Amino acid sequence: MVVRYRLEHGFTDALGHLVMCDGGACTVRTRQADVVIRLADVVAAKEVPPAPQRRRPAQ
Questions:
Q1: How large is the average pLDDT for residues 18-39?
Q2: Which DSSP symbol is given to 40?
């Protein structure tokens, strides 16, 4: 899932797994950390396919 949300001076994206959503916020688990986003700050969100698996190097 990718969520675009407002910051004080623009926008940013959180890419990861949606782990929680309640009446006022959602939590996206990114590679770095869990990001809690106020729903009032969300401007767009969509499901994205999983990253492709890495190929093994040729031997």
A1: 96
A2: G
- Reduced to 3 states (helix: H, G, I; strand: E, B; else coil), residue 21 is strand
Look at the block and give the residue holding tokens 């990718």. 2
pTM: 0.81
Residue 53 in this model has a pLDDT that exceeds 90 = no
Asked if 11 and 43 count as a contact pair (C-beta separation under 8 A), the reply is: yes
Phi, psi of 22 (to 5 degrees): -125, -165
Contact of 2 with 46, CB cutoff 8 Å: yes
Q: Using alpha carbons, select from 6, 39, 41 the residue that is nearest to residue 20.
A: 39
HSE (side-chain half, CA atoms, 13 Å) at 22: 2
